[in-house]
Amino acid sequence: MLSRNNADSAVPMAHGRMAGSQAVYEGSIRFARPKHHELTMTDAITADTSRNDLLKIAIGGVVSGLLTPLLPDVIDLLAPAPATLRLALVAVPFAVLVFFAVRRLSANPAWAALVASLVTMIAFVAAVNAAVYVDGQMAGAAKTMRSLFAGLAGGLVGSGVMALGIALLPAGPRKAAPWMPMLVTGTIAGALLALDTSLGLDRTSFLYPVWQAVVGVRLAMALRR
């Protein structure tokens, strides 16, 4: 049995141990809280950066889309060139946007971003040819209906060729799921060709600014996955 003196001395020691444990516990909480706070701030900064990148790409798409219908007149002033090449050059503003999007938002090297730009120009030519083909197949239909289906076909082909080509880059997403929103969005936005046709637009367009903005954003989102 413990003597009274031993018992009395054991009480302060027990209180000391409890106080020490409590201090260690509280200290661990104080050290843990900044880490949680730092993690939250990092997530917030990353989210803000992501939103800012998407906004910049959307604005860039609108600008490139406004320039696109103005380029044919400029390109016609150049030395004679094959029609396909002249058509591909019309897509240069959007191809430049794609270059910077691929370079900034993925781990692809510079040469791969350049390839993505060339794929974008090829996709533009393919989209125009698809739209012309569908329009020719609906010769007996109303002009608005022909433009609607031609725009849908062109939007699907254009976004599809871009998705296929960019997916094959070294750091391109190989699965189909990340690209599906881009295909759907590009197809639906292509229907704006009917609006351009109805309004008789030539040097301006609703189709190009909207299509290039939304497809550019969808491309950026696909590259982030």
Q: Could you describe the 3D structure shown?
A:
It is a single chain. This protein is mainly alpha-helical and 225 residues long. It has one domain. Helix content is 80%, strand content 0%. The chain is built from nine helices and no strands. The chain has helices at 4-67, 71-76, 83-89, 92-105, 110-137, 143-167, 180-190, 192-199, 207-224. The longest helix is centred in the first third of the chain and has 64 residues, at 4-67. The protein is globular, with a radius of gyration of 30 Å.
Give a quick precis of the structure.
The protein has 225 residues and is mainly alpha-helical. The protein has helices at 4-67, 71-76, 83-89, 92-105, 110-137, 143-167, 180-190, 192-199, 207-224.
- The amount of helix comes to over 70%
Series of secondary-structure elements, N-terminal to C-terminal? HHHHHHHHH
**Fraction in beta strands:** under 5%
Give the rounded overall mean pLDDT. Answer: 85
The helix-and-strand class reads mainly alpha
Regions with pLDDT < 50 over 5+ consecutive residues? 23-33, 41-46
Domains counted in the coordinates: how many? 1
Give the tally of β-strands: 0
What composes the largest sheet?
A: none
The end-to-end distance, rounded to whole angstroms, is 69 Å
* Principal-axis shape: globular
Number of helices: 9
The rounded Rg comes to: 30 Å
Summary keywords:
225 residues, mainly alpha, 9 helices, 0% strand, globular
